[in-house]
Amino acid sequence: MGSQGLRSPRRWFRWPARSGYRTVEVQPPSRADEGGWLFLAAGFVLLGVIYTYGFEREASRALSAASGSSSGLLPYQLLFRELPSPEQRTFRAMQEGVGEAVRVRGDSGSWPSVEALAADGVPPFAPDVLDKTGVRWSARSEGLFANYLGVPSADPAAPAFLILVQEPDPVTGEKPPPPSVIDEEHQLLADGTLLHVTYWKRPTAGLHNGFIIDPAIEGWAQIRVSTPLEEMAKNENAQ
Amino acid sequence: MRMLNKWRSGLLLALLTVVGIAPTALAADPPPLKVGVTLHPYYSWVANVVANTNVEMRPILPGEVDAGDYQPRPEDIKKLADLDAIVINGVGHDDFILDMIKASGNTKLVIIKPNDGVPLLKAANGGTVNSHTFISFSNAIQQTYAIAKALGALRPELAETFQKNAADYARRLRAIKSRAAERLVNPAINRVVTVHDGYGYLMQEFGIEIVGVVEPAHGLVPSAQELGNMVDLLKREKVRVVFSEETFPEPLLNVLRQEGGAHVYIISHIASGTYAPDKFEVEMQKNVDAMVQALVTDPGH
Are residues A45 and A108 located together in one domain of the fold? Predict the structure, then answer.
């Protein structure tokens, strides 16, 4: 008994048992205590939810304010995945054609003509027997800009397409270091020249015949593969 | 004999010194680039880009295994250990490779994702993207150039050869596509169902609409209810052509034939078999031939 008391000092302050039995009243857990803890926990969860929701919403609002929309797209931009299938097909052909044109530009220093690309069978410049709208392509360049313009000849309701290329200004142009991250609007030539290449569409009605430098002002919509935010996330994952 | 060898070595050394090539310069030549691939089309594309160079190629998956059914194996992880670069899909078709690369311990491996910048179509079922970008002429050409550029950055002395090879390959692929397009002008049928969701890019290039896809997800066999829904779709949309693959169970195809009234044609998403430089061209030619037969020739009779 004595050794048990030494191991458990709290027993020293208890009334000594008069016999081998003792009576202990087992109290139920306090309702007030339990309710208090539950209330506190619920409060923490609620605060967490409010904080997370508020933070996300505020961050989203800030991004929207900075970029103009919740996706980061500017008002004149649209996405490839939202285009109807025939226009997606044209866009893919334009991308393929740009690849070839950029390679010729890299090798020769000048942009190839539509006729030269068509002679090599390069889409969308080569005759396309499956194109129901009969898009005819022409190329022009002025100063630092080049236009490849495709206008439908068989279906006036079909859209016109534009590939706009901007060369860097030889004096003030961007001169990125070689391992630069190239996004979907930039192409880097082997000599370090950074080209700005964008794709556009607009209704054919009202299309004027002049050279195009600022398509957004002239009613063109820029076609992008991904939103700027998606592109940013992809670049972050790649690093 | 040993004296003769010494004499020959001495002569060679003298010759090299005379023509100004020091032995140290020979030793400084970079070792052959070792490039791995995950999918069969990538093997064909890389093989054509590096043709007539000393680049070594290595498929990581066994040829007979479809990437959709593949389980990583230790002997395949070993194949990654000394690679310089690897070409991967990176948009959902070979995600297993990233863990395999980590497990290989090869921290210097350059991962080439030719799909970067390629516009992706939506998957027919499931809300993700269609990762079969490689079943397409246009994508194959763009991705071949992307591979040439990436490999050229690793071996600048071969960059021009890679670019020229890529251009030659692109010309051949465009010729196949152009001949097929001539035969697919005004097809009798321009709406189809495919068993596998691997043909969105290819069909779009030829203006063919895919009305439905039989497999509920990559490589999954449809349930009885899903197959019944597909039969209803075939009837409702009056679709008469189904493009299937050799591996899809024949009894299920018979349901589509008998209940849905569809004609079934076989095409391939180039997912298994022997790795070969001409495999992509050969199988894509077969694919467009099957399309011509299904959409132009047979309906005309």
Answer: no
Q: A55 and A102 share a domain?
A: no
Decide if B242 contacts B265 (C-beta within 8 A). Answer: yes
Nearest CA-CA distance, residue A77 and chain B, Å: 15
Q: Which of B91, B110, B111, B116 to mutate to test the interface with A (most CBs of A within 10 A)?
A: B116
What DSSP state is assigned to residue B295?
Answer: I
Interatomic CA distance for residues A227 and A80, integer angstroms: 10
Are B215 and B221 in contact by the 8 Å Cβ rule? The answer is yes
Domain check: are A93 and A193 in the same one?
A: yes
Closest residue in chain A to residue B185, using alpha carbons only: A130
pTM over 0.90: no
DSSP readout, B124-171? Answer: SSSSSB---TTS-HHHHHHHHHHHHHHHHHH-GGGHHHHHHHHHHHHH
Alpha helices in A68-171 (DSSP H): 85-108, 114-119
Interface pTM (ipTM) of the complex?
Answer: 0.87
> Do the bridges between strand A194-203 and strand A159-166 make them parallel or antiparallel, or are there none, so unpaired?
antiparallel
pLDDT, tens digit, for every residue of A20-52? 778 888 777 677 778 888 888 888 888 888 877
Which residues of chain B form beta strands (DSSP E)? 34-37, 56-59, 85-87, 110-112, 191-194, 209-213, 241-244, 263-266
